[in-house]
């Protein structure tokens, strides 16, 4: 194992902001910011629909504001169509059945010391690691 | 008023995802590539977020109700069932194939990349199918 591209400071700064955003959503709306649920409910549920859609709009505005302030954003995505389609489907089905993703289980759930979320997070990191091990990057 | 706090929270969340590198699938895959050339950065994203959210939300919850909403909406902490394991396993496989999870995928819509749109489209198809599967079981 070699360590490469390690950026602890920007990762930690981004993480602190994510935690702060989750706190704002919690104290004002009384809800946890699990993005898979917010996204799914924003389209398929009438409850809190406008709130959910505005949160998603915010997620899209965030990177735009960041790049308008003169910062460069790096994002490299695979061009393989089958991978994108299968990956999207699995992320959608999986987070719906498992009721959460990196934000809902990984950040909010672990913060609440939820056993459910701790097991969920270990599971998706484990299957993610195995997938990368098999398919490479 | 919950509309305003939703938007502001979403924006801060989106900036956080961007600064942290979560919106870069290559960086996410680098984090999952533990056995080869490992980029541990994303561990610090989670640590940072938990470090802020955990103590602040516990302190607030003890003292108060939500400012704009009637009550807190909080899921169960304990029910570890088959669905949790199957669902999160599938999610991890999709995450490892592409390097995008739901939050960064939505944020990446701003990059005007057709592949991101396809991913997001199929993620929503996945939400629909997941819902369908769950409703059939119940």
Describe the fold and architecture.
The complex is a heterodimer of chains A (137) and B (138). Helix content of chain A is 73%, strand content 1%. Chain A contains 6 helices and 1 strand, in the order E-H-H-H-H-H-H. Chain A has 137 residues and is mainly alpha-helical. Chain A has helices at 8-29, 35-44, 49-68, 81-97, 102-111, 115-135, and one strand spanning 2-3. Chain A is globular and about 45 Å long. The mean pLDDT of chain A is 96. The longest helix of chain A is centred in the N-terminal third of the chain and has 22 residues, at 8-29. Chain B is mainly α. In chain B, helix 2 (25-32) packs across helix 4. The mean pLDDT of chain B is 95. The chains are: A mainly alpha (137), B mainly alpha (138). At the A-B interface, strand 1, helix 1, helix 2, helix 3 and helix 4 of A face helix 1, helix 2, strand 1, helix 3 and helix 4 of B. Strand 1 of chain A pairs parallel with strand 1 of chain B, so a sheet runs across the interface.
What are the main properties of this structure?
heterodimer; A: 137 residues; mainly alpha; B: 138 residues; 70% helix
What is the average of the pLDDT values of chain A?
A: 96
The main sheet of chain B comes to:
none
Helicity range of the residues of chain A?
over 70%
Average of pLDDT of chain B: 95
Count of individual beta strands of chain B: 1
Query: Could you spell the SSE succession of chain A in H and E letters?
Result: EHHHHHH
The secondary structure category of chain A is mainly alpha
Structural class of chain B: mainly alpha
Q: CA-to-CA gap between the ends of chain B?
A: 36 Å
> What radius of gyration of chain B results from the CA coordinates?
17 Å
Computed Rg of chain A: 16 Å
How much β-strand is present in the residues of chain B?
under 5%
Q: Which oligomerization state do the chains in this entry correspond to? A: heterodimer
Shape of chain A: globular
Q: How many strand elements of chain A?
A: 1
- Number of continuous helical runs of chain A: 6
Q: Largest sheet of chain A, if any?
A: none
Largest interface: A-B, 113 and 118 residues
Q: What string gives the helices and strands of chain B in order?
A: HHEHHHH
The low-pLDDT segments of chain B are none
Strand residue percentage of chain A: under 5%
């Amino acid at each position: 194992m070699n360590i490469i591209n390690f950026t602890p400071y920007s990762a930690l700064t981004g993480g602190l902001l994510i935690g702060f955003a989750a706190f704002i959503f919690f104290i004002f709306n009384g809800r946890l910011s699990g993005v898979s649920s917010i996204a799914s409910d924003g389209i398929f549920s009438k409850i809190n629909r406008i709130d959910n859609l505005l949160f998603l709009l915010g997620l899209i505005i965030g990177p735009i504001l960041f790049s308008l302030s003169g910062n460069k954003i790096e994002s490299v995505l695979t061009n393989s169509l089958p991978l994108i389609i299968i990956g999207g489907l699995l992320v959608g089905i999986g987070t719906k059945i498992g009721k959460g993703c990196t934000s809902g289980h990984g950040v909010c759930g672990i913060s609440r010391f939820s056993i459910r979320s701790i097991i969920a997070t270990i599971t998706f990191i484990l299957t993610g690691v195995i997938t990368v091990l098999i398919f490479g990057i | 008023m919950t509309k305003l706090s939703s938007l502001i929270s979403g924006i801060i969340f989106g900036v956080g995802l961007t600064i942290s590198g979560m919106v870069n699938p290559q960086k996410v895959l680098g984090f999952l590539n533990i056995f080869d050339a490992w980029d541990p950065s994303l561990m610090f994203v989670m640590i940072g977020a938990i470090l802020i959210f955990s103590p602040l939300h516990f302190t607030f919850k003890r003292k108060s109700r939500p400012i704009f909403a009637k009550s807190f909406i909080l899921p169960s902490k304990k029910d570890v069932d088959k669905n949790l394991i199957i669902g999160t396993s599938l999610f991890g496989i999709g995450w490892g194939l592409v390097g995008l999870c739901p939050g960064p995928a939505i944020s990446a819509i701003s990059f005007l990349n057709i592949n991101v749109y396809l991913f997001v489209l199929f993620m929503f198809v996945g939400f629909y199918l997941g819902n369908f599967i769950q409703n059939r079981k119940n």
